[in-house]
């Protein structure tokens, strides 16, 4: 059975096979390198982003970077580091959350003092081959995770995190803008001035000024006040859109069959109405905006020909979620037949609507603000640090939310176990620990789909943690991975890189 125990400390230490295991050998006294920020995918856009990021970093020089609650400043720490591999250009505000020395962060494998224990990315299309056996977690600076092979990561016991809500205000503001773009002929009027009036009047200011006044009648629109906005999805973004629309004097009808309690608290109660089904929302709405994730077989073509038949002919569609949620061929057919006269505003192209005058396509601007980039990166860093240092899981798309505050009488020996979500697995694990003389002070067991996650605080530190992990895996074949966490920056049990066991993803011998 292929498994790993990894202790990543020394510069250039790399995994090597020894009797079916993978180890990284390092000298204990080596000081880890400070944070390095280098993009691995240096496209023109990212070079421009990095130049802006460098300017921002210089302007903030001398300011405290801060960290998650689980991480204090580096101080005189001289031990091993958590190694984080980045893809894309990550905001320096987010990278600054990682305490230098305690964390080594780079887009270049050669700049890390050992194999990566975490991956942080934005839009990079992550390949399974890029995720080494030392990786414990992956975090995306953004909400969507379609660029990450989540299914394969689940099979390997690797949680995938995102940053829901970090870009919510940026998307909300773009939705508000799009309500006006759909209603007032703003873009059409601007194009008319630049491409028609200025050309025909040959730069004559007096004639241009007269034409601008005269031609305004060509672009009459409607006000959004008093109109009804249908909001599909009432999470972090949808709830903000609801409040913004109400502030503009609109009526709002919302639909969300899986509304969480936290999201419900953000809604304005009786100031809006909630539809019992989508058909009710379609029938009432003058505008429809979508804020749900793309899930194949669930939200694929959520708005299709049948849905459009339920809508008002003049309904305007706003889509800043995912292009596949709206059936572009159905929209085109409705335009061609005259059954749909409203506009479709999105930041996704569609092969069936390319060049159509009623399809207003923007660059993918939803989260493209400096503030959203900073918020997403900072949230991603804090989420990953919390997981690496305490085993806490929040904002994961494939693992269950798991939060267990430390037990006051614990030795600091915290064991985090990922196993297949099958009957009897937890009983096998706790029974085995009992046979090894391990007294459990507290534990939490959660599950999501085929994955279960257990966090256990032990009264005493095991004499041989690595041997205990090996024996646990042999006794409990449903265990996918395990790691001990202790006082990680005191060079005690669970120091960065130590006591991490992972079974071969295929489970083969």
UniProtKB/TrEMBL annotation:
Domain of life (superkingdom): Eukaryota
Q: Which organism is it from?
A: Ostreococcus tauri
Q: How is this protein named in the record? A: D-isomer specific 2-hydroxyacid dehydrogenase,NAD-binding
| Pathway terms, separated by semicolons | Amino-acid biosynthesis
Q: Where is the composition biased (Low complexity)?
A: 1-10
Residue ranges of domain D-isomer specific 2-hydroxyacid dehydrogenase catalytic in the record: 132-398
Basic residues composition bias: residue spans: 11-29
Q: Where is the D-isomer specific 2-hydroxyacid dehydrogenase NAD-binding domain?
A: 190-366
The upper taxonomy is: Eukaryota, Viridiplantae, Chlorophyta, Mamiellophyceae, Mamiellales
- Give the span(s) annotated as Disordered: 1-29
Per its UniProt record, what Pfam families does this chain match?
A: 2-Hacid_dh, 2-Hacid_dh_C
Entry's Gene Ontology molecular function annotations? NAD binding; oxidoreductase activity, acting on the CH-OH group of donors, NAD or NADP as acceptor
Its keywords, alphabetically, are:
NAD, Oxidoreductase
